[in-house]
Amino acid sequence: METDELEAIIEAEIPDAEATVDLPRAHHDRNHQDAHFAAVVVSPAFEGETLVAQHQMVYDAVGEEMTDSVHALEIETYTPEEYAERNTDEE
Fold this sequence. Notes:
It is built from 4 helices and 3 strands, in the order αββααβα. It is α+β, with helices and mostly antiparallel strands. It has a single domain (about 5-25, about 35-90), classed as GMP Synthetase, Chain A, domain 3 (2-Layer Sandwich).
């Protein structure tokens, strides 16, 4: 699976989500079942949800791919406000 495919899956399942996915570890074969991905997902759907619930939403969005194409998924989730704050703090 390619990173843009995983982004599209997440964005299709979580309302108004913007996902950025990369491969934090080098892989010889991106389609190998041992593929590790890292995702940053920003969505207003995370508003008022616990961190665990937010991450579960992402896992639910990825669904069957977690057993087929994605071995591991590092997740960072933010509401749009949290993400804007985070980027302001980094500057």
